[in-house]
Amino acid sequence: MTIQTTEIPARPVPRLAKELLQSSGFLLAKLGMGFKAKAVAKLEEAGFDPYHYSVLAILGEGARETQAMIADTLALDPSRLVALLDSLEDRELVVRQRDPEDRRRHVVTITAAGKQELSRLRAIVQEVEEEFLAPLDAKSRKAFHEMLQQLACAHDPRCAFRSESG
After folding, report:
1. What is the β-pairing status of strands 94-99 and 102-110?
2. Parallel, antiparallel, or unpaired: how do β-strands 102-110 and 65-66 relate?
3. pTM of whole model > 0.90?
4. CA–CA dist 5, 8 (Å, integer)
5. What is the strand order of the sheet 65-66 is part of?
6. How far apart (Å, rounded) are the C-alpha atoms in residues 73 and 162?
7. Are 93 and 113 in contact (CB under 8 A)?
8. Alpha carbon 56 to its chain's center
9. CB neighbourhood size of 133 (10 A)
10. Angle of helix 50-60 versus helix 24-45 axis, rounded to 10
11. Is 66:106 a contact under the CB 8 Å cutoff?
12. What does the DSSP assignment read for 104-166?
C-alpha cells in the first residue's frame, strides 16, 4: 500500500496596501510600535518598564529634579509617577527628599545603584536599537537619527537638548 502525500502550497505572504506603504506617517508609526514592543519586552525581562528607564535616564544626567518636573517631562499623571518612584526607591535606585528651598516639593536624585542599573538598561535598549536598525549602515543611521531628532524637536519642545547651563 502506498501512502500518497499531498504538498500543501505555501501561503502567500500578506502584504500591506501600497497606499499605506507610501505614507511616511504610517511607516513611522508602524516602526515605532514595533521598536516599542521589542524594547518593552526586553525591559520587562529585566524587571522594569520604559518609564522606569526614562526616570533613571533623566536623573542620570546629574540634575536633582522635582517630582513635578519629571511628571511634566514624561507627560505622566503625578500619581503614576509616585508609583514609579516608589518602585525605584524600594530598589534603592533613587532617593526622594523634601526640597530645602520649598518644603512642599520633593526632589529626586539617582543613587549609585541607580546609575549602575541605568547602565544595564541603556545596554538593553542599545541592543534592541542595534538589532532594529541593522539593515542601515552607519551613515544612513546617522542621517535617519538627525531627521527624527529634527521632527521630534519641531513637534515637542521637550525633545530639545538641554544646554549645559540650563
Report:
1. antiparallel
2. antiparallel
3. no
4. 9
5. 65-66, 102-110, 94-99
6. 12
7. yes
8. 11
9. 16
10. 90
11. yes
12. EEEEEEE-HHHHHHHHHHHHHHHHHHHHHTTTS-HHHHHHHHHHHHHHHHHH-GGGSPPPTT-
CA atoms of 65 and 85, how far apart (whole Å): 12
Distance in angstroms (rounded) separating the CA atoms of residues 22 and 122: 33
Report pLDDT for 164: 46
Rounded to the nearest integer, the mean pLDDT of the chain is 91
Residue with cell string 500578506? 14
pLDDT in tens, the chain (166 residues): 566 667 777 888 888 899 999 999 999 999 999 999 999 999 999 999 999 999 999 999 977 788 989 999 999 999 999 999 999 999 999 999 988 888 888 899 999 999 999 999 999 999 999 999 999 999 999 999 999 999 999 999 888 765 444 4
Residue type, 4: Q
Q: Which three cell numbers stand for residue 133?
A: 536598525
Rounded to whole angstroms, the Cα distance separating 69 from 74 reads 9
For 49, counting Cβ atoms within 10 Å of its Cβ (0-12 exposed, 13-18 middle, 19+ buried), the class is middle
Instruction: Give just the sign of the alpha carbon dihedral 19, 20, 21, 22.
Output: positive
Give the SS3 label for residue 25. helix
